[in-house]
Give the backbone structure.
Amino acid sequence: MLQSTCQSDQHQFSRRRWLGTAAAGAAAVALPVFDPAVHAAALQRSAKQVLFIWLDGGISQLESWDPKPNTEFGGPFRAIPTSVPGIHVSELLPQTAQQMQHLAIVRSLCTQDNAHSSGVDRIQRGDPKDRGVVYPYFGSAVTKLLGPNASGLPPYVWIKPLSGGFMHKDAGFLGPQYGSLAFGDGKPPQNLLQHANVSDQSLQERMEIRAFADRQYARGRPAASTEANGFVYSMGLELMQRRQLFDESTFAPADVQRYGTHDLGRHMLLAKRMLEAGVQFVKVNSYGWDTHGDNFNGSWSLVRRFDQPFAALISDLAASGLLDQVLVIAMSEFGRTPRVNGHLGRDHWPEAWSLCMAGAGVRRGIAVGSTSDKGTWVTSQPYDIGHMFHTWFSALGINSRETAWDNQGQPLPIAHEDCHPVTELLS
Amino acid sequence: MWISSTATVTADDLAQRIDAVLQQSFAAAQVAPGPVSSDAEFCRRVTLDLAGRIPTVDELAKFLSDPDPQRRSVLADRLLDSPEHSQRMADLFHVMLMERRGDHPEWTVFLRTSFAQQKPWDQLVREILDPQESPEQIRGAAWFITRRLEKVGQQETDYPGLTRDIGRLFLGCDLQCAQCHDHLTISDYRQIEFQGLYTVYRNTSIRTDVKFPAVAEKPLTRKTDFMSVFDKQPLLVGPRVPFGIEHEIPQFESGQEFAVAPDRAKNFPGVPKFRGLRLIAESLPSAANRRFAENLANRLWFVMFGAGLVNPLDQLHDDNPATHPELLAAVADAVTAAGFRIRPVLRQIVLSQAYQRSSLGAAAGAVPYQYGQEKRLSAEQLLASVLTACGTGGPAATADAPAEAEQKRAEAFVKAFGNIPGEPELEFSPSLKAALFVLNDPLMQEQIQPGGGNLSERLLQNGDDIAVADELYRAVLSRAPAAEEVRFVCEYLGQRREHRQQAIGNLVWGLLASTEFCLNH
Amino acid sequence: MQGINNQQGELRALAKIPTSCQMSLLRYGLDGSLLLAAGRDGRIHRWRLPPVGLPLPAADAKSPDAGESAELPPLVGHNGWISSLEISADGQWLLSADTWGRLACWPLTATAERPHWEHTEAHAGWLRALAVTRDGSCLASCGADGMVRLWNPADGSLLRQFSGGGQDLYSLACHPDGQRLAVGDLRGGIHVFDLRDGKHLTTWDAAEFYKLSYIQEVGGVRWVAWNGNGTVLAAAGCIPENGGFVQGIPALRFFNTADGSVLQQLKLGDNQEGFVHQVLWHPEDYWMGVCSGQPGRGRFFLHRTADEAPFCLNPQPLANCHSAALHPLGRQVAVLANEGTYGQQKSMAKDGIYPGNTSPIHVFELPASGPVS
C-alpha cells in the first residue's frame, strides 16, 4: 500500500481548499508557502480530464471504424464518407461521421488476449509485464498521476448500468482509495441525500463544528489523520451540494433528445455534466457488445445507439472548448472476427481491431494504421495496448517513459516498457 | 548495558520487560519518552481495546474519582473479566481471520464461546485447522476453511489462497510468492514451505451432506510434485508445516484408506485413516513452533499498540527483523509460558508504561513507542461507541433493538466502515462512503434524535450551557472539554436559542463525526 | 417423436450441394429444375438440377457432375448481401433485393449481366423482404427504413408506399387471396394491410419475440407465412433471453386469420437454439421450418398446427439452418445449413489462410403419402 507521505503541491492545494471551505471564524492555521509557478504548472496538468467509453464485449470494427464493404467478410452494410475526405466509416455511424474532424481513429490494434474475463482486465490495466503486482486501471492511474484538481469532486467516476457503489478493484496496488465511484444507471451513491430532519443550515453548522473539533484534536499531533478525514467529508459535502448534477430531471429536454433516451444516451449526457463540473476521469460502460450471434442486426441496434450520443458529446465538447482539455477514448477489449459464424455472428478478434480517440493532446481528423483488404490482419505497424497507454499518458502531459510508480520501493513503469507513444497520434 | 534476555519472560513480568527494553532504545536514541496518558485518555483507550467501546459517562466519572493508586490495573481487570471482553475478542479475531468475507452464525458461536471460555489460542487454532463436527459449539470453526473453498464464479477453487492464508494468519508468513519459485527476496520463504502445506489443503473440499460448515478430506496418498518456474528441477514433498519437518505418507491397500467409509448414497465423503489436517493441527499450533508464538505475539502487539513489532504482520522472516527483537522474543515467551492464554498477556501489556503513554505531543521523527499511537477503530467498535455515546448513560444494551434490526445496523456499519473482503484492516483510511454514511444515514440520525432518555434528550433538558458542554464532551469524547471548547459550545448555543434542539443535534453530530471520536488514541 | 413413414421410415437425405460462401435464402424455380440461393457475397447463385426421380449427386459428393446438377454463373450487380429472392407468379422472373437497398428483376435463367429493371434505392438501406401476390400483379418490399412499397413486377413502377408502423420491418407475406399483406416488425408486431389501398387493417401481437437488452433491441418477427387457404398465419422469431450472443428460444406463433387470436405458441428448444429464420407451408397440411443458434445448435423441423411438438426433426446433425425451400412437386425439400470453422483461428490468418464459412444445401426426400400419425 502506498503511504501518503506526499508533500507535493497538489496535496497542499487540496488541504488548503479544505480549510478554506470548512473554516468559519476559526483560529488561523499556519500554511506552508508554496511557489506560485510550480503551483500553476501543477494546476494546468491537473486540469486535464479523461472520458473513457468502454463498449464491453467487443464492438465490431467492421461494422464501425474500419468497414470493408463488398468484400468476403464485409457484411451487409455500406461505408459512408465522413467530414474528413478520404476517411470512411460504417453507415452505422452517420452522426459520428460528421464529427470526424475532431477524431482520431486507430485501425491497427493488435493485442494478445481474446478472452473477456482476462482481456478486459489486461486492456484496462495496459497489459503490463507480469511482475506479480496488480496494475491499476487507466482511470486509477490517471487520477493518481495527475493528482487532485480544483473541482472538489470525486476524481474517478464510473457511469454504468446496474449497480453502483465504491469500486476498489480498479486501483490495483495503488490502494482502494484510487478506485472508482460508480453511478449505477446514473444514480449517485447511497447516502447522498440530505436527511429530512437536517436543514441546510444545520448541515453547514455540523461541518463547522466537526472542523472545529478536528482543529482541537490536531493540536500536538501529526496532521495526517485529520487531513485525510476532512478531505472525505469535504468531498461528501461537495457531492451532496452538487447532486443536481446527476438529477436527470434537470437535463434539458433538447439535450435528452439529441443524446437519446436509451441508457447509453442518458449516461453519456450525465458524463458530459460530470466533465463540465470538473470530474477528472469519467468512465462510461455500455454492455452487450459481444455479438457472437446476429451480429448484423445487433450492430444495427448497438452501433447506432453509440453513434448518436457519441457524436452529440464530441460536438458539445468541441463547441464549448472543453475538448482541448478532455482526452476522449472509445474502445472495447478486442474486435470481432472477419469470418461470420453459423449464428450470423462474429467472434473475438484481437489480431486487427480499432478504437477512436479525440481531444487533449491528440491530433484531429486522422485515421492511423491500416488492415488488409478483408480486414484479417494489420498491414501497417501494429500497436498493442501498451502503445496506447504511452500515447494517452503523453497526451495528458505525463512523460510515460520516465515516470514510474513507487510500489513500496519497487519502481514500476506506468506503461509497458517495450512500447512507446505513437507520435502520429499526438498533436 | 543490555538486559540479558536469557531468562524466559513469563506472563507476570512481561510489563517490566517491555518497559526495560524500550528504555534502552530511548537511551540509545537519546530521547526521553513522552508523558504518561491522563486518566481520561487511559480510560478511553483501555475500554476500547478490551471492551470494544468507549466508556460511559458513569464509568469515566467513577474511574476519574477513584482514589486507588492501582485504579488502572483494577480497571483493566474489571474489563478483562467482563462479558464484553469476550465479545470484543470474538469481533477482533473475526475481522483478523476472515477479513470481511462475510459472516456465519456457526462461526460466530465458535468464536464467542471460545473467548468466553478463555480458550487458549493454540487450542482455538487447532479447532480451526482440523474442524470437528462435535461438540456443536466448535463445529463452526470449519467455516474458516469452507469459506475459502467456496468457488467464485467460474474460477477454480482457490487452494493456493487457503494455503497462503494459513501461513499468513497463523505463522505470520505470506508464502504467496513462494508458490511458483523460492521467494525472490525473502530467503526463508522457499517453495517447499508453500508446497508442503498445499499438499494438505488441495485434498480438502466442502462437505455437502450436512447443513453446517464442514470439511471433507480425500485420502492423502501421494506427495505433491512441484517445480520452480526458474530452474525447472522436479521435486516432491509430502505434508509439511512450513519450516517444519516433512511427514511420511503411509500407504494403504486399496479400499483400506478410510477409517470411516464413504457413503455415496448419503454423500458422506468418509474419513481417511491418514489425515493431513490432523497432522497440521498437531504440529503447527504448538509451543514447539516458535513462529506460531511469534505470530500471536506480534498480532497482539499490533492490536494494543497500533503497529506490529514486525511489519507487515505477515512478513515474519530473518530479513525483516522486528523493530525490537527482544520485545518480540519477550512477548512470544510470555505467550508460550501462559499456555497461549491471551488474557494474561493483554493484562501485562496494559500494565506497561509503554501502553499507557500519551499520544499527545507526537511529531514526525519520533522514535517508536516514544509516544502513544493512533489506532483505527473497527466498524464494531464504532457502532458500540456510537450507541454508548448517544445512549442512556449505561453501557449500550445489545438487546435494545430486535435481533433483526440489530443485525441490519451491524451490517450497515460494516458496509460503511469495513474494508473490502480480503483487505486486512490495519490503518485508518477514511472513505467517502463512511463520510456519507455519517452525514446522511438514518441510523446515525436516529441516535442523535432526542428521545428515550438518550444523550440528546438529556442535553436538551439541561438549561445550563456550561453543563451541557461538559456532559457532551464526556459522553462523546470521554473527557472534559477545554476552556476554549466550553466557550465554543456556549457561544454556539447562545446564537441558536430558537433552534436549540437542532443545535444540540448538530453539536452531537459534530463530535461524533470528528477524527477524535473515530480513532483510538 | 414419430418419424415420417416413407419407404425407408425416415426423412431421407438425398444430396449435399457445397457452396462457395454463406447463403441466406433458397428458392426453387421453374418446375424444380432450378435452385436459387441468396449469397452473402452479393451474388445470386443458381443450380440446374435433374428432374425428380433421377439421382442427384451423392450426399457426400465434393462437387456436382456436369449434366446432373451444375452451377450456373451467378447473377452479379448487387451489393452487400442478397437479402431476398422471389419468383414471379408466372414463374418467369426472378426478383431480388440486397442489403444496400437495391431491388432488381431478372429473367429466371438470365445470362445477361443487366437486370430487366432495377431500383438502386428501392429502400434506404437494408431491404429485408419481398413477397409477390399469386396473380402476379403486385410485388411488396419492406426494409429497415420502416417502409412498405408495392411495385408492378412487370416494369418496376411504384404502385404505392406506406409506413409499416414506425419500426424496422423484417418480413412480408401476401395472403393467398392477393388482397392482404402481413408485415412483421422488430418489436413483435404483425401488421395486416389491405393491398388494394394500403390501409392498415389490424395488428397482431407477438411481443415476446422482442426484448430490450441493455441498449440492444433483440428479436423481430423474422418470417411470416400463410397456410394454403390463408386461414392461419405463422410468425417466426425467437423469445430472447439476452442480446450480445443472443440467447433465445426459437419460437413460432400461429394466428387465426379470421379474428387474430393465437392458435398456438410453439417453442422449439432451449435458449441456445436461437431464431426460427423461416417457416413455410406444405400442401399436405403441415409446416416446415428452420432455426439456428449457438454453435452446433438449430434444426430443420416439420410441424402440424396444434400438435404439441414437431413431428419430425432433421435426421442427422444439421445445425444452424437458415433457409428451406419446397420443391414444386412437394416431394423434396432443400435446406441451407452452415458449415465451416468457428472461432478465432488466428495463426492461419497471418499466413493468408482464413477460410470463410459456407452454407451447403442438403436435399431431403419427403414421403409420397404424407405423414402418418
